[in-house]
Design a protein that fits this description.
alpha/beta; seven-stranded parallel beta sheet; 7 helices; binds NADPH dihydro-nicotinamide-adenine-dinucleotide phosphate; binds 2-hydroxyethylsulfonic acid
Length: about 260
């Protein structure tokens, strides 16, 4: 049985990914996030529904010392991580550069870029030793094209896009696979409500078109890990049928 570590498993895409891996019956799971109650609840649910063995691991990914301590306290049966899904991340605000909030910028950079780096550094070391493993980053269409007021969030996702390709070049000779999924708008997540800091009117961005669902992204991630060992999928760029680019969304109603 392989072990998959999923960051940001307490909500949205990470939670859906945990459920998808559990459904396969082929993985033990390390479920990461800051909200321990959510991780415990998910671990219980996966155990009852699918018989999955999960280990909730609570830490703030922005703090390197917490990341290191968390990986250090993994019990023996979860020590070897075969799949790392670097999913934890967020957007904060939608402001022109001159109105940007420094705390928003720092939180996005610390979480989306530095947190991903802390996780990858520590977990990839063990993968290099064992000459195997698979790392999947969650990028975004925001890592492919910028949009007005997306400035720093887009920059962090362009950073993820560059890191995925750079990490691939560092690890391919060790038999470690590296790739990313780059989704457009995804509902069944807390992404929009967090971006607009609880303002539900501003966060109401999915009512006039059908976006991707968190489970669609989870399916793509699971497809990547399920490909034969000699196949490395570098990037799955995916949007809903009603979204053609960051700025092109058919908002004529929910069609699906
Ligand atoms: P959610 O807000 O639903 O989930 C974000 C997850 O990240 C939560 O589980 C949260 O856990 C975790 N997280 C955030 N900050 C930290 C932190 N400091 N330390 C540890 N964990 C943290 O959003 P999504 O599921 O949508 O987001 C997942 C990823 O998908 C992100 O990287 C996002 O940028 C990306 N994405 C999202 C899209 C969308 O439209 N929804 C589209 C494209 C990409 P907790 O709060 O418990 O710590
Ligand atoms: C999330 C998609 O377009 O809101 O990464 O930036 S978008």
């Amino acid at each position: 049985m392989k072990t998959a570590l999923i960051t940001g498993a307490s909500s949205g895409i990470g939670k859906a990914t945990a459920i998808r891996f559990a459904q396969s019956g082929k993985y033990k799971l390390i479920l990461c996030g800051r909200r321990e109650d959510r991780l415990i609840e998910l671990a219980d649910e996966l155990h009852i529904t699918y018989g999955t063995q999960s280990y909730p691991l609570c830490f703030d990914i922005r703090k390197e010392s917490e990341v290191a301590a968390a990986i250090d306290r993994l019990p023996k049966e979860f020590e070897r991580v075969d799949v790392l899904v670097n999913n934890a991340g967020l957007a904060l605000g939608l402001d022109p550069i001159y109105d940007g909030k420094l705390e928003h910028w720092e939180t996005m950079i610390d979480t989306n870029v530095k947190g991903l780096l802390y996780m990858t550094r520590i977990v990839s070391r063990k993968m290099v030793e064992s000459r195997s493993g698979h790392i999947i980053n969650i990028c975004s269409t925001a890592g492919k094209e910028v949009y007005p007021k997306g400035n720093v969030y887009c920059a962090t996702k362009f950073g993820v896009d560059a890191l995925t390709r750079a990490i691939r070049q560092d690890l391919y000779t060790f038999g470690i696979r590296v790739g990313q999924v780059s989704p457009g708008h995804v509902e069944e997540t807390e992404f929009a409500i967090n971006r607009f800091e609880g303002d539900s009117a501003r966060a109401n961005i999915y009512s006039d078109f059908t976006p991707l669902r968190a489970a669609d992204v989870a399916d793509a991630i699971f497809y990547m890990v399920s490909a034969p060992a000699h196949v490395n999928i570098l990037d799955i760029l995916m949007t809903s049928t009603q979204q053609a680019s960051a700025g092109l969304v058919d908002r004529s109603g929910r069609k699906y």
